[in-house]
Every structure is written in C-alpha cells, then in structure tokens.
Amino acid sequence: MIRTRSILLLVLLFLAAPACAEFLLVPDSRTVTSGGLMNVTLLVTNESTEPNAVVLPQRLILRTRGVLSAPDIVLTLAESQPRHVSVNPGAFVRVRYSGRLPEGLVGNLVLEPVDFTGPSLGITASSPGEPQVIANEQPETARDTKADAALSAVGPSDRDTARFLTAFSPYEPNYFAVGSNGPTNVKFQISLKFRLFNPDTKPPFLEKLYLAYSQTSIWQTGLTSAPFYDSSYRPSFFFLDEDVSQWPFRKSSRLGFQIGLEHESNGKDGASSRSLNTAFIRPTLTFPFADGYFFSVAPKIYTYLEKEDNPDIAYYRGYTDLLIKVGATDGVQLGSTLRKGTGAAPYSVQLDLSIPLKTRKLGNLGGYLYLQYFDGYGESLIDYNRKVPSQFRIGLMITR
C-alpha cells in the first residue's frame, strides 16, 4: 500500500508540473575546435494555443554526457538579443548564443542541457590544427535559413523520439573482453540508466531520479556448447546529482552524490541461486587538472536489506566498493575497483585500462582498447565465497 501511494504521488507531481516553452539548439557547425568558439542558434518553440512570454536565460549550460571530469560548457546570450520575447502559438523565435568549448575535449560528444528543457546536442570536437568545416563565417541570412530548415525537419513525433532517446545514457562501463586462464571466456557488461522525469520538472529533485539496468556475464566460449558460466542482473532505482557543489579549496572540483536501492541476482534456482537487495550511497569527488587530466574517487557504501541465498556475503564482499580513476578526459584512463570483506582474507581487485581508438592509423574507430585484470574473490556472483584464479582480458570498451 505504501509503495502504491508513493507511485501515485509521483504521478500527481508530474502531472502538476507547469508547461513551458521548448528549446532546440542548432549549432553553426557540427565540428568545433577544442578550446575554440562555439556559436549556436536557440530555437524557442510554442506548441500551445496561447501566446507565450519567455524570459531568455543569460547563459545556457551544457554538460558532456558520460564524461564526469569535463567542465561545463557555458554559452552566453548575444548582446544584441533581447531577453524578453513573445512566441505566438505554433511559431518560434531565434536567439543567438556563443561560448568556448573547454580545452581537452576531443571526439564525438553529446552535450546535455543542465538548466533548460530541450534535446541533447551532438557535436564533434577536433584537436587544434585538424581540418574542420567552418560555418561561422556564413552571413546571418544563411544561418537563419539553416535554422528554419532544422526546425521544419523536427516534427512532433521526432521531438517525442528526441525526448525519449536523450533520457537514456550509459551508467556503468559497457564492454566486451576475452581472456583465458583455463577455458577461453568472454566477459561483457551492458549498463544503461533512464531519467524518469524531463528537465525543468517541478519539484526539481524529480528530474534527478533514475532507473538503471546492468548485466555482467561470463561466457565460456572455450567449452563444448559455449555455456554461460554466470550472470549478474542488477536493476536499480536511485537519485543522482553529478554536481552537488564545488569544494572551496579547488573551485574546478566536482562533487557528485548518489543514493538508491539495488537488486542483484544470477537468475538461477536451487543450490546455485544467488540474490541480494542493498541500499547504497555513493559520493564522487573529481579533481580536473591541466590538459584534460583528472583524478576521481567514488566509494559505494551499502547495507544488505535481504541476503537469504547468501547470508555470509558480507564476510567475502564487505560493505564498500571503492572506485578510483585517473587519466585524461579523452585519453588513456586507468580505473580500479577494490573490495575488502569483513573476514581477514577475502578481497577483490579489478583494474581497467582504456585507450581511445580514435586515431587516423586505426581508421578513426569508435570505442576504446580495453585491458582488464581481476584477482580475488567473487568475480561472478556464484563465486562470491570462492577465490578464483587471477584473470587478464583484452577487448573493446564502448563507454567508460
């Protein structure tokens, strides 16, 4: 009954959120030099039946999806533009913004609005000196025509699709890696999160609620019939704010905070069944440095709500996963996930090294060359109480 009332309350709050103008960003060029100027046209639409008076923000803040160490991108309203505009029913107005793309950001980027409603913006950030398509020198009439064409190409169904797709983002790393310490095996992980409420929902905390699904599997391809050794299925529900505040002694640092519930099981029955429910909190502190380098630490602290299938799991797994990561925003990164059980001996260490494959020699491949090393107890849930042989794997990381 309590769960049903909570769901009804969330639905009522969502329905009570006021309608507002929709924003659509159209860049002058889809290719922007890292550290260079970024010019955009903001299209403010009105799909209602009444005129809409809009106060334009002085600044637009964009955040790079999946790159916690990247600084925010700030676009400023052009001085010649009025801040107060009126948008007629079924019409739109164009407004100009510009700002600098932070140095060190290179590659295909997805930029998400932080403080306004609208779909994400996809651009390619090139290194200084690389050839790019320059559209900033077009006359104003040419840019207006381009903006009109972009808006006319986005129909109601396309907007719905954009809203749906931009609510999805990577959660934990997605990868495929192969190794052999005994039978050849493939370990892979799929992990996505879904934002439940659209940006600008009232009250604001609702837009930071997520559902996520992660699956980690070990596939024994070297055995007859290539069976799956074990899989861990982890649905979760949580609140996530990736930038709670900046620490006073280093203004560029970023402190994130996550709190939620997670279920983990291997989907088996009988003696092979493994299952647990946890409540967790995870602060994430990131320190950016020069040339795109960063250091981050994120302890995931949890308590067991239910562990009937494996009542002694805390002895082997403990109560904290410690994630430490260091490297460059668009370069080589090294991560480590550490666990220590409450017992004297049990521990686990996983090291993850990722190297971008976006080089001319490799044909501008996507993703990252991925090297993984695991040692300790419980690489899979079925082995939570058993020390497995150390394992080295190599493969492809899709998101990190």
Structural class designation: mainly beta
Number of domains: 2
* Mean pLDDT over the residues: 82
Q: Give the CATH architecture of the largest domain.
A: Beta Barrel
Terminal Cα span: 39 Å
Spans of at least 5 consecutive residues with low confidence: 1-20, 132-155
Beta-strand share of residues = over 45%
CATH superfamily of the largest domain: Phospholipase A1
Q: Can you put this structure into words, describing what you see?
A:
With 400 residues, the protein is mainly beta. The protein folds into two domains: 15-165, Immunoglobulin-like, CATH 2.60.40.10; 167-399, Outer membrane phospholipase (ompla), Chain C (Beta Barrel). 11% of the residues lie in helices and 50% in strands. The chain has four helices and 23 strands. The strands form three sheets. A twelve-stranded antiparallel beta barrel has the order 12-13-14-15-16-17-18-19-20-21-22-23. An eight-stranded mixed sheet has the order 1-3-8-6-5-9-10-2, covered by helices on one side. The chain has a two-stranded antiparallel sheet with strand order 4-7. It is globular.
